[in-house]
Design a protein that fits this description.
- This protein is an alpha+beta fold.
- 32% of the residues lie in helices and 30% in strands.
C-alpha cells in the first residue's frame, strides 16, 4: 500500500453545495467537553490508537487557538435530542509555499456512519468556512486513500 503523502489545493472561488441528509445537522466547536468528542471521533476512525493520544495532538495543535476552534472545527451530529456527534472537519490554516493559506484538516466520520452520503456535505461545509478566511486552501492525504482522493477531485481539489 502506498502511504506516501499527497497534497491537493483548491482556490475556494467555486465551492459546490451538498446539503446534509435529513436527520443530521452541523454545529461548530463550543460545547462542554468538545475536545473529548473530537478525540472520540478521530480515535474511532483509526487516526489515533487511543483517546489520550488524540487529546495530546488536539491540545498541541488546536487548543492553543481557543477562539479559532469555535469558528473552524465543525461537527456533524444526529438531530435527535442533544445530538450524537458522528463526524468532524477542521477549516484550519497552514504554511504553503511560504505563505499562510487555509487547510482542510481532520476530516473524519465514524465508521458506523460512513457510506451514508455525509462526506460531501461535511467537506463542502468546511470549504465554505475556509472561504470566509482564505482565498486558497490545501489538504494532505495519502496516495493509498483512493476513495478520499476521488471525492476531493469531484469537489474541485487538484493534486499538487
Amino acid at each position: 500500500m502506498n502511504n506516501k503523502t499527497l497534497f491537493m489545493t483548491h482556490q475556494l472561488q467555486s465551492i459546490p453545495s451538498y446539503p446534509l441528509e435529513d436527520g443530521y445537522r452541523f454545529r461548530y466547536f463550543g460545547k462542554e467537553n468538545d475536545e473529548l468528542v473530537w478525540a472520540d471521533i478521530v480515535t474511532a476512525t483509526g487516526e489515533f490508537p487511543d483517546q489520550n493520544k488524540a487529546l495530546e495532538r488536539f491540545h498541541r495543535e488546536l487548543a492553543v487557538h481557543t477562539e479559532e476552534m469555535k469558528r473552524r472545527i465543525i461537527f456533524i451530529e444526529t438531530e435527535e435530542g442533544e445530538g450524537m456527534p458522528i463526524g468532524t472537519a477542521t477549516a484550519w490554516w497552514g504554511d504553503w509555499e511560504q505563505k499562510e493559506i487555509g487547510r482542510l484538516h481532520w476530516v473524519e466520520i465514524i465508521p458506523a456512519f460512513q457510506g451514508k452520503g455525509l462526506g460531501k456535505p461535511l467537506i463542502t461545509k468546511a470549504m465554505q468556512t475556509l472561504a470566509l478566511y482564505h482565498d486558497q486552501a490545501y489538504l494532505k492525504t495519502q496516495y493509498s486513500s483512493e476513495a478520499a482522493i476521488h471525492l476531493y477531485k469531484k469537489l474541485g481539489w487538484e493534486m499538487v
